[in-house]
Design a protein that fits this description.
The structure holds 2 protein chains of 2 kinds.
Chain A: H1 9-17, H2 22-34, H3 36-54, H4 66-79, H5 102-106, E1 116-119, E2 122-127, E3 135-141, E4 150-152, E5 156-162, E6 165-167, E7 170-172, E8 177-180, E9 185-186, E10 189-190, E11 196-202, E12 206-208, H6 211-220
Antiparallel strand pairs in A: 1-2, 2-3, 3-11, 4-9, 4-12, 5-8, 5-11, 6-7, 6-10
Chain B: H1 2-10, H2 19-26, H3 30-39, H4 47-57, H5 72-88, H6 95-108, H7 111-133, H8 136-153, H9 164-180, H10 206-222, H11 225-236, H12 241-248, H13 252-272
Helix pairs in contact in B: 4-5, 6-7, 7-8, 8-9, 10-13, 11-13, 12-13
């Protein structure tokens, strides 16, 4: 599997610094699980964070209470044996479509998704998060079928999990990541052979071009 | 012997320089103190301390059973190696010691090692988070929780994958998000069966990585000021890039290009020397 489309470095940096909010982070972290190349960049960014931490100026007065802290830790360790629980090796399998952290949000793999009909054979499933600033959903577009043509009022991140789609900007297969903003008006079409399942994060409703789609939009929640 | 100990007290290093050495001075038992100094890697000494070490090396104390663990010739060798290191770098506490300390905590719950980590990172995490939260109590709470998590998770630290400061940074970042933004930080899991591992094994080992961490600081310092500003706002103030643009009053595209240029430089400089 070769991934051709990656998140921008500014998005990776926001995730590395801790500034990126939860819904967007789900898409970036799930891409990182699939993309060793971006993980390398991401780890370099964390190393920059480490360098800054190491050079952080000294605070005026450093209240040294090592003993107090250590006693607290020892007491907590006695009470909590879970600190020493180690991971058991899970069986390696290629069958899993959703890597972590996405699986946690879905509550399972693709089989656990509760799809909602979206019309034209397409389905969606909105995933709950603690933040209302943006919305995460899974989309399932039938093979060879188009997603209604739309542009964006805000930012839209799309991560392909299975199948593929293509639009004016290229071909997107598993692991590929698209960052779309107001300037992109596109008409993605699912590739033939397999339904396209992707993760989409948006911070504003999509802007559809056709009147029919516009009318349906408030009912579909997209 | 006592005179030399006294001399060592006089050259007690300030905090900005070696916290590991400073740590040793907290140890009141002189025998343990010598033992610990002898076991320290050469990289942990500054030029100033080297002088003391050199005096010790030629003193009679060195021949007595008190420092049986290390002979005069060993110490002289250490002084030589340390001199070489001191010329190559201005750093006193190298990431080496810290990385080793984390490994020791993970392997044997080493209290002294934890003290070293605490001395070095507690004030730094406090001041780092102070920039993010502008609240002293918050910063100290994050620093304390970070230290607790360091103690608990040290077994997961992999010295060939991250420098000590990088690892502590990620813990402090996550603690801050968890405690004060009351938010979740979704993260990938390398143990997940669906995780796609690196195609080729890591090109560098733990030693390379430590050198890389030192080099990275120099590379950052050599970046154009405007690129450093963007990185500083990102890490010290935890600002997403659109807010950085607003803060600096520059177009979003400019922030993006500064970020890209900075990492392009970092990548190529680190790549050149691999």
């Amino acid at each position: 599997m070769t991934i051709a489309h990656h998140p921008s470095e500014e998005l990776l940096l926001d995730y590395a610094s801790g500034a990126l909010s939860e819904p967007w982070s789900v898409a970036v972290a799930t891409h990182l699980a699939l993309c060793p190349a971006c993980r390398k960049t991401f780890q370099q960014m964390e190393a920059v964070g480490g360098a800054f931490l190491d050079q952080a100026p000294d605070v005026a007065e450093f209240s040294d209470d090592f003993e107090g802290l250590f006693t607290g830790i020892e007491q907590a360790d006695l009470a909590d044996h879970s600190a020493n629980i180690s991971f058991t090796d899970q069986q390696k399998t290629d069958e899993i479509i959703f890597p972590e952290p996405l699986r946690e949000y879905v509550g399972g793999d693709v089989g656990a998704v509760r799809w909602q009909r979206l019309g034209l054979g397409a389905f969606q499933s909105i995933l709950p998060t603690n933040e209302s600033s943006a919305r995460i959903r899974l989309l399932r577009i039938p093979a060879s079928r188009p997603v209604p043509e739309h542009s964006h009022r805000g930012l839209e991140l799309t991560l392909v999990l299975s199948g593929a789609f293509s639009d004016s900007t290229g071909y997107y297969g598993r692991g590929d990541f698209q960052e779309a903003d107001q300037t992109l008006e596109h008409k993605p079409v699912a590739a033939p052979g397999e339904d396209c399942v992707c993760l989409a994060v948006t911070d504003a409703p999509l802007r559809f071009r056709s009147i029919a789609a516009k009318i349906a939009q408030p009912f579909l929640g997209i | 012997m006592l005179g030399i100990l006294y001399h060592l007290e006089l050259v007690r290093p300030d905090r900005a320089r070696g916290s590991q050495l400073q740590n040793i001075f907290y140890d009141c038992d002189p025998m343990r103190r010598w033992g610990r100094i002898c076991n320290m890697p050469a990289t942990a000494f500054s030029r100033r301390n080297l002088f003391t070490l050199a005096i010790f090396a030629v003193s009679p104390a060195c021949d007595s059973g008190e420092s049986a663990k290390c002979s005069r010739s060993e110490i002289l060798y250490k002084v030589k190696a340390a001199k070489k290191m001191a010329v190559n770098s201005n750093e006193t506490v190298t990431p080496d010691c810290l990385s080793d300390a984390l490994v020791r905590i993970g392997a044997s719950r080493d209290r002294d090692a934890f003290r070293e980590i605490y001395e070095h990172f507690y004030p730094r995490v406090t001041s780092f988070i102070l920039d993010r939260s502008r609240n002293r109590a918050t910063a100290e709470e994050v620093a304390q929780q970070t230290m607790i998590n360091v103690w608990r998770k040290a077994g997961q630290f992999q010295p060939e994958k991250a420098a000590a400061a990088t690892w502590v940074f990620t813990i402090a970042r996550n603690v801050h998000i968890d405690l004060f933004r009351k938010a979740k930080r979704p993260d990938f899991d390398p143990n997940d069966p669906a995780f796609v591992p690196d195609a080729e094994p890591l090109a560098h080992d733990a030693l390379n990585l430590k050198q890389e961490a030192a080099r990275l600081k120099k590379i950052i310092a050599a970046l154009p000021e405007e690129q450093q500003d963007v990185l500083r706002l990102a890490f010290f103030q935890e600002k997403p890039h659109p807010e950085i643009a607003a803060e600096l009053n520059i177009p979003l595209g400019t922030v993006k290009s500064r970020i890209r240029l900075a990492f392009k430089r970092i990548r190529s400089e680190l790549g050149d020397q691999e």
